[in-house]
Amino acid sequence: MNRRRRIYEGKAKILYEGPEPGTLIQHFKDDATAFNNQKHALIEGKGVLNNRISEYMFTNLEAIGIPTHFIRRLNMREQLVRSVEIVPVEVVVRNVAAGSICKRLGLEEGTPLPRSIIEFYYKADELNDPMVTEEHITAFGWATPQEIDDMISMTQRVNDFLSGLFLGVGIRLVDFKLEFGRQYDNDMVRLIVADEISPDGCRLWDIQSQEKLDKDRFRRDLGDLIEAYQEVARRLGILVENEQGKHQGPILVRSS
Ligand SMILES: Nc1ncnc2c1ncn2[C@@H]1O[C@H](COP(=O)(O)OP(=O)(O)OP(=O)(O)O)[C@@H](O)[C@H]1O
Ligand SMILES: [Mg+2]
C-alpha cells in the first residue's frame, strides 16, 4: 500500500508529496483522455513512455538553460519535481495548422503557418479550457505582464529547440502545450516549465509518411498509440523495451 500523501489526481498523472519540502512526486498513469474526459481508455505502457520522454525533454531543456521543475526520474512511472504554483494558463505553440485552429480559422490540416503562433488557454475543465488573450490573463490576475513576457520568450526557445531536436529524428513538431509554475525561493519568485512534455501534449508527424505519432491517434481512433509513442522514444534513443540497455542517443533519420 502507498502511504505517501496524495496531493492531486488528474486525468493522466498523480502528484504525491515529495521526500523533501518543495518537492513532489509526479506519477504517470496509463489513462488516456480526450475531449475534456469525454473519451477515456487505459493504454498499457503509456505512463512509462511519457515518464521517459518527458524526462528526456526536460533534461535537454535544462541543458540549454531553460529552467524546469524536473529534478530526477525515480522509477519507471515516477519523477521527482519541484513543487510550483501552476499558472492557470496553458501555453500552446503552433508551427503547422492542426486541431482547433483549423476549425476556428477554416484552415486545412497541415497548412504551414506564416510563423509560429502562441495561444493561451485558461485552465478550467468545467469551461473546456477556453482560449483567452493577454488582456484576460492580466485583468483576472492569472499572470502579470512580466510573467506573460517570460512565458512567451521561454516558449519560443522551447519551440526552436524541440523543433530542431525532432527534425533531427525525422519528426515534425506541429504544435505542443506547455504549463508554467511559480517557484518561490525566499522572497524571489521565478517561472519554470512544469507538468510534462510528451506525445500526449504535442502533435508529432513523421516527416516522410506524415503519420501521426501523438495523442491524435487516440482522439481519432487511429489505433497503435503505444507503438507510435514507442517509435518517438526509439528515435530519440530512449530505450524502453529493454531496460538493461544503455541510452544510445538520437537515431538520425535522413529527410529527403
Ligand atoms: N511541479 C508541479 N507542481 C505543482 N503542480 C504541478 C506541477 N507540475 C504539474 N502540475 C499540475 O499537476 C497536474 C498533473 O495532472 P494531470 O496532467 O493528470 O492533470 P489534468 O487532468 O490534465 O488536469 P489539469 O486540467 O489540472 O491540467 C496538473 O494539474 C498540472 O497543472
Ligand atoms: Mg494535464
Bound molecules: adenosine-5'-triphosphate, magnesium ion
Along the chain, the helix and strand elements come as EEEEEHEEEHEEHHEEEHH
Give Rg in angstroms.
Answer: 18 Å
Approximate strand percentage: 25-35%
> What's the name of the CATH homologous superfamily of the largest domain?
ATP-grasp fold, B domain
- Proportion of helical residues: 25-40%
Structural class: alpha+beta
Largest sheet features = 6 strands, antiparallel
* Shape, per Cα inertia axes: globular
Quaternary: single chain
Number of strands: 13
Number of domains: 2
How far do the termini sit from each other? Answer: 52 Å
Total helical elements: 6
CATH architecture group name of the largest domain = 2-Layer Sandwich
Uncertain residue ranges: none
CATH fold annotation of the largest domain:
D-amino Acid Aminotransferase, Chain A, domain 1
User: What is the CATH class name of the largest domain?
Assistant: Alpha Beta
Task: Provide a brief overview of the structure.
The protein is of the alpha+beta class and 256 residues long. Helices cover 27% and strands 33% of the residues.
